[in-house]
Recover the amino acids of this structure.
């Protein structure tokens, strides 16, 4: 997600001033308006990847809300718990994140019902925690809960529903159930092509996902075909300097390398590296991944060279 860090810094400074003024007006007695400002500070800090600051803001808001809130089933309380859970998840504090998502879910199910898109969002958060913990059976169960809610609330031909198809596919792929993964990725693709069209970045992402499953199955011809479909869309829609386009170049390079087509692999790796190097610092994971791929390619070339 792209954002202007300077704007978030301005927002945080504004909320800090608002908090100081609020405390002055209330003589330090916190109320729900104070909680709202703390929550906003947490949001601004989270957007700046200041996760400790975000957690402090959200927890301060929750303490005030617990003391002053109208009732435990209030939607604002669910939102604050959900915000806290998102940041804890990003920090890798999965057990704490799960507790936050579960608190938010309890309120959402009571206030909104089990078939509401916001409730589905909590199912998704819980699924993501289990996936990160490699508890794939639990992840699948919660992703399917999210899917059921989305199909009911939004219909089967909605981009958010397609996202759930994709999430289920990812879990199956991680379990090496590749036929199931392909089935669900293709369900997602069918929706995206119909609703978004064949020349949309999200559709390209599905082409890429399908290619990755074929690659895992060592069906390199199929992988190459689908990666090139993704590349064609990304070049046309995003341009040749976009990181997603570079990712497609890298992916195609990996397929060519696996096929032993080393010259073609190097050509695509070089394209990916040039774009990533212009977009990111040398230490960025994308840059480092392509450099590792180039090193592996040179090792493969050396091992295959005659005598």
């Amino acid at each position: 997600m792209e954002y202007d860090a300077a704007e978030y810094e301005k927002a945080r400074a504004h909320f800090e001033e608002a908090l100081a003024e609020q405390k002055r007006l209330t003589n330090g007695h916190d109320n729900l308006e104070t909680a709202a400002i703390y929550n906003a500070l947490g949001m601004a800090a989270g957007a700046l990847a200041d996760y400790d600051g975000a957690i402090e803001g959200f927890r301060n808001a929750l303490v005030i809300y617990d003391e002053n809130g109208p009732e435990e089933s209030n939607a604002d309380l669910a939102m604050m718990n959900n915000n806290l859970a998102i940041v804890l998840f990003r920090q890798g504090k999965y057990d704490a994140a799960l507790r936050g998502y579960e608190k938010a879910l309890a309120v959402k199910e009571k206030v909104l019902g089990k078939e509401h898109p916001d409730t589905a969002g909590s199912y998704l958060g819980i699924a993501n925690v289990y996936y990160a913990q490699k508890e794939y059976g639990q992840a699948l169960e919660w992703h399917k809960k999210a899917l059921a809610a989305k199909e009911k609330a939004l219909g089967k031909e909605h981009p958010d529903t397609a996202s759930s198809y994709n999430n289920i596919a990812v879990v199956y792929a991680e379990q090496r159930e590749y036929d199931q993964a392909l089935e669900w990725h293709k369900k997602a693709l069918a929706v995206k092509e119909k609703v978004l069209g064949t020349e949309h970045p999200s559709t390209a992402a599905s082409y890429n996902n399908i290619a990755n499953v074929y690659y895992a199955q060592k069906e390199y011809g199929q992988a190459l075909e689908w990666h090139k479909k993704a590349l064609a869309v990304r070049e046309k829609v995003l341009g040749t300097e976009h990181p997603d386009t570079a990712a497609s170049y890298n992916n195609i390079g990996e397929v060519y390398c696996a096929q032993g087509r080393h010259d073609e692999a190097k050509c695509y790796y070089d394209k990916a590296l040039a774009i990533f190097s212009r977009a990111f610092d040398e230490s960025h994971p994308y840059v480092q991944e392509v450099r590792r791929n180039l090193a592996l390619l040179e090792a493969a070339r050396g091992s295959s060279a005659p005598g």
Q: What stands out?
A: Residues 231 and 248 are 6 Å apart (CA to CA). The chain is about 80% helix and 0% strand. The mean pLDDT is 93.
